[in-house]
Amino acid sequence: MTTTEAPDVTTLVDMERYPLDAPPAAAGVVAAAREQFGSTGAVELPGFVTAEGVAALVADAERLVPRAHRSAGIAGAYLELPDPSWPSDHPRRRLSEFSVGAVAYDLIPTDSPLRALYEWDPLLHLVGAVLGRGPVHRYADPFGALNLAVMGDGDQLQWHFDQTDFVVSLAIQAAESGGDFEVAPLIRGAGDEHYPDVARVLDGDRSAVTTLPMTPGTLLIFAGRHSLHRVSPVRGTTYRHVGLLAYDTVPGTVGSELLRQSRYGRTVPFECPPETWPV
What we know:
By secondary structure, the chain is of the alpha+beta class.
């Protein structure tokens, strides 16, 4: 794959509002974000990317759309095969439709502003500071370290819990309508699954559900393992673009071959020099 020079990330991020290159100046941002994350399981940083930066990200996303692998089918909230030992109406046996496109990390060139942002150390340090669990590391997975999620008319993600403690995403472009990120925050805990509460959400009870705005330029750090969430059906001809930036508290994290095959349609990366993969 032909590569060119990465853009300067400081021309994308609102460095006055989020002075991540000067940690003392960013202390207030970090403190407020940690408080929000601890109380709600999510922290939104609106305007993290400037309007000009968003325009560059949108142009980049549109050129990457043809590289997205589409997957669709039915899946459950727990991202596992249904266990027939549970009752038929149990949350662990409930299935819903999903459809989404994903551009894998190895197909995102080095001149991509989204890739440059992901590989920017001040952002890595911000995520670690907000989590407060020690240093975090970029995924070592050539597929899943960074994805561009592409959703068009009729696409959606079913109600589900993530299999990782946290997810970092960047809103790039909203759909004409729909494509809302809906969340039942911290609905389950480490020692209690709260199945009746989960079942109520799956049944359509929205009393515990909140909608996080899909505002381009907003960075979201989200505790998806304990918060039930979905993306409502997308409507219209405008793609919904979101960058998914993968980090972990353990170095060297990679996805399984089964995950690679289902999400990207392949298990072997395209030619991409390993020295370009962050660790």
